[in-house]
Design brief:
Structural class: alpha+beta
Organism: Myripristis murdjan
GO biological process, one term: positive regulation of Rho protein signal transduction
Oligomer: single chain
Pfam family, one: RhoGEF
GO molecular function, one term: guanyl-nucleotide exchange factor activity
Number of domains: 4
Protein name: MCF.2 cell line derived transforming sequence like
Mean pLDDT: 74
CATH architecture of the largest domain: Up-down Bundle
Length: 746
């Protein structure tokens, strides 16, 4: 801004004294001039002038600000500065006009008049600047909105274009020729499933959206219009390619059907099986004559016309097939004429003596029995299983040792072949060298195949180690599944499924055996090998149970001892558990009366473990639960009460003369009965062991007065002071501790 006078800007009273000396004030007073001076007004005027000077430096050069404004939305702050400057100017104008408002006869000095004119002019310029800025900001906001629309359009364009490229690539991969009607029909169905109209509709909708932006005078018309044209062009290309392939496939199917009709015409001249009787010969003759009447409909007449009509789909194989059909048509007519003469002779009525004979009893072919079908399925799937194992070991495991593939193996996979494949080589060798050959020996007597399973039941337990390693294998696979090594191996093997599907085959196979044995057992009732089949089925189910139990057992955490020292795992399952402790004559419950603990129990030969089940978040085997160890009871020191508190789903496990009682509730009475029976077996075996030790031990020396001996089996609780309510009616208890046997005194 250009000021007609120079207005010094001061920051304090000291600077005012520097600029205006007392002598100047005195001179003005001598000359009769009024030099009124107000410090507040002067400082306010100086501050306002500072703001105006700052705005003058900015100059509101809107064209120069445009590139900056497009990148910085904080330009809105300029509007606030304008409002502040306008308010300051208004206050300054009020201060200048204040003497006139107080005294209408007041006469302003020359400086005051100049200041008044300057402030009014500046306020007018600020109003004009504000108006110009508002206009610019409106244009800028519109441009920003258009810029955002453009960004959205470009993002959607990239997404749709990528989908169209994938769709076009898939379409190009489909063949427009076929080798058979079934193949042509399959390709047509695949084309229909990959048509993906949603993608085409989205692309056309996006092109229409671009046209709408152009109609609304978008500044990026040169960028939007080519993209709209490109989308429409690609959609048209895909649609035309799809139509072309469908038309060619339909033509191929038409040609195949024409050739098949000719093939049917050739096959129709071979009804020999039906001509063994007079009635059959007459029926065959009538059918043959009807077919000959429609012969022209089944005959291809012009080879060149066929080749011209189906030129687009004629592969070398199809062309050879068409030529062969034309070559055979000449001899077929003669064959039919000869067959017509033969049928007429057979159909002629002849009188022959007939000797009545008794019908033979129907003999059922053993090869067509259901048992043989199951046996064939067992052998075929076994051979396929062995081939799949070999394919995995040679196509993946062996390639991990191939130096040419070393650069494709990630660091997380190095030296982890045993983790990834487990004992699959051992499983393959067993099935290839032993089990498959022994199964093939029972091809003609499937009802006896149970013996084979029973003889190899110990060998089949190698699956337990494989299943126990499966969680580690699957975890490693998830870490490396996308690496180039596996993709290259899968490409070489031409597998549609990944390695993880083949690593699951052993688990599926050991499960499949019990299904096949059940089928064989169903069709072998009353046969010699029925008992062996039943025993084999029970053994396989036992292996599956052991595998399942071991998978749960390895998920236990927090147990400081060695689980293998606890003996075999007999049973495991989830229960609701209440605990009671007897202190003196009082019973104390650990938790609220009606709030049980949820515990997973593991029954071993030597101990009973109480664990808390914890669900894991993850996929596959990582989603399997884990078990936190909470408590254990030695089976040599426990007793059991079959019915607890009148509930047929509850039973009691107690120790130390019922000082510690665990009330266990099963999900069903059947589960409860199974557990009670199994615990009884363990306690009974321990009692027998105690008696054997007592029988074989030499007579001990008389124990000191303080020593005790306990080895009992009774029908009630060992504690008579506080019996369980159910113990008096329907309970039985057992308690035996080998450690309680008297020891000889040295």
């Amino acid at each position: 801004f250009a000021f007609p006078i120079q207005v010094p800007a001061t920051e304090s009273l000291h600077f005012n004294h520097v600029l205006i000396t007392p002598f100047q004030i005195h001179c003005c007073a001598v000359q009769g001039q009024n030099y009124d001076y107000c410090v507040t007004v002067q400082i306010l005027m100086d501050l306002t002038v500072d703001s105006f000077l700052l705005l003058s430096l900015v100059s509101f050069d809107l064209p120069l600000l445009q590139p900056y404004l497009l990148k910085n939305i904080i330009v809105c702050c300029f509007q606030e500065d304008l409002q502040v400057a306008l308010s300051q100017g208004g206050r300054l104008l009020g201060c200048i006009n204040e003497p006139l408002q107080e005294d209408p006869d007041y006469s302003m000095s020359h400086d005051e008049l100049e200041n008044l004119a300057t402030v009014q002019r500046l306020l007018g310029q600020l109003d004009e600047t504000e108006t110009a800025f508002d206009d610019f900001w409106e244009r800028h906001r519109t441009k920003l909105e258009q810029c955002l629309q453009l960004r959205h359009f470009e993002q959607h364009f990239r997404e749709v274009r990528a989908q169209l490229d994938v769709m076009l690539e898939r379409l190009c991969g489909f063949s427009e020729v076929s080798i058979s009607p079934a193949h042509a029909d399959h390709v047509l169905r695949e084309l229909s499933s990959h048509e993906e109209k949603d993608v085409l509709d989205r692309a056309l909708s996006l092109a229409s959206e671009g046209d709408s932006l152009i109609e609304n005078s978008h500044y990026a018309e040169d960028c939007i219009r080519p993209k709209c044209s490109e989308l429409r062009g690609v959609c048209e290309e895909i649609s035309s390619t799809l139509r072309s392939k469908k038309n060619l496939l339909l033509k191929a199917m038409e040609l195949h059907h024409a050739l098949e009709k000719e093939g049917i015409y050739l096959l129709a001249c071979q009804p020999v099986d039906r001509c063994q009787s007079q009635d059959g010969a007459e029926a065959a003759l009538q059918e043959l004559e009807r077919y000959l009447d429609t012969g022209p409909l089944h005959t291809l007449t012009d080879l060149s016309a066929i080749c011209c009509q189906y030129e687009a789909v004629l592969t070398p194989q199809l062309r050879d097939q068409v030529e062969k059909v034309f070559q055979k048509q000449g001899s077929v007519q003669e064959m039919f004429e000869k067959r017509r003469v033969s049928l007429k002779k057979l159909a002629a009525k002849q009188t022959r003596p007939v000797q009545p004979v008794a019908p033979r009893p129907e003999i059922k072919s053993p090869l067509s029995s259901p048992g043989n079908h199951v046996m064939n399925e067992l052998l075929e799937t076994e051979r396929a299983y062995v081939e799949e194992l070999l394919c995995v070991l040679e196509g993946y495991a062996a390639e991990m040792d191939n130096p040419a593939m070393a650069h494709l193996i990630p660091s997380t996979l190095l030296a982890k072949k045993d983790v990834l494949f487990g004992n699959m080589p051992e499983i393959y060798q067993f099935h290839k060298r032993t089990f498959l050959k022994e199964l093939e020996a029972y091809t003609d007597c499937p009802e006896l195949v149970g013996r084979c399973f029973l003889e190899r039941m110990n060998d089949l337990q190698i699956y337990e180690a494989y299943c126990q390693n499966k969680p580690r294998s699957e975890s490693l696979w998830r870490q490396c599944s996308d690496c180039a090594f596996f993709q290259e191996c899968q490409k070489k093997l031409e597998h549609k499924l990944g390695l993880d599907s083949y690593l699951l085959k052993p688990v599926q196979r050991i499960t499949k055996y019990q299904l096949l044995l059940k089928e064989l057992l169903k069709y072998s009732r009353g046969c010699d090998g029925c008992d062996d089949l039943q025993a084999a089925l029970s053994s396989i189910l036992g292996i599956l149970k052991a595998v399942n139990d071991s998978m749960h057992l390895i998920a236990i955490t927090g147990y400081e001892g060695n689980l293998s020292e606890l003996g075999r795992l007999l049973m495991q399952g989830s229960f609701s558990v209440w605990t009671e402790h007897k202190k003196g004559h009082a019973k104390v419950k650990d938790l609220a009366r009606f709030k049980p603990m949820q515990r997973h129990l593991f029954l071993h030969e030597k101990a009973l473990l109480f664990c808390k089940r914890r669900e894991e978040n993850g996929e596959g085997y990582e989603k399997a639960p884990s078990y936190s160890f909470k408590h254990s009871l030695s089976m040599s020191a426990v007793g059991i009460t079959e019915n607890a508190k009148g509930d047929n789903k509850k039973f009691e496990i107690w120790c130390n003369s019922r000082e510690e009682v665990f009330i266990v509730q099963a999900a069903t009475p059947e589960i409860k009965s199974a557990w009670v029976n199994e615990i009884r077996k363990v306690l009974t075996e321990q009692l027998k062991a105690c008696r054997v030790l007592l029988f074989h031990c030499p007579p001990p020396s008389p124990p000191p007065p303080s020593s005790t001996f306990s080895c009992s089996s009774s029908s009630s609780s060992p504690s008579s002071s506080s019996p369980s309510p159910s113990s008096s009616s329907a309970s039985s208890s057992s308690s035996c501790s080998p450690s309680c046997l008297p020891q000889p005194i040295p």
